[in-house]
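Structure record:
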Amino acid sequence: MGMGSKAYLGQTEDSVVIDFNYYRADDALTPRLIQDVMEEMEQMAFVKYGAKPHWGKNRKVGFFGVKQKYGPNFDKFLEVKNKLDPKMMFSSEWSDEILFGRESSKYDGCALEGNCVCSEDRHCSPSKGYFCRQGLVYTQARVCRFSSAQV
């Protein structure tokens, strides 16, 4: 359990941190074991329950809608960031997408890398038997699930 922080993008209220560790192949397009379970839990935590991401440990999907989770503190952070880094030397494609809401395009395998939530089979790995499906418990989730019937 962590105590509330005054940092603009910190956990401003007392909170509990839950960490899920998993291993993946060196090739990001190789599906993880229990791929669908991990994606469903991730979407349930961030979307259904409004969890806030760890700024150094989450996949990009953990940051979708993050601005709304921090309210006015998010804008205060951007104001300070822009003042202290006007030439954007400490920016990257990733930080610009997260901080400024610039969305990257969906592409084949983007859900396996955590760069999108699947909406089409191609976002998973259909050639390896992983297809975009509805979550089993959190039915609003869209996950890459293995199905030998469609290979």
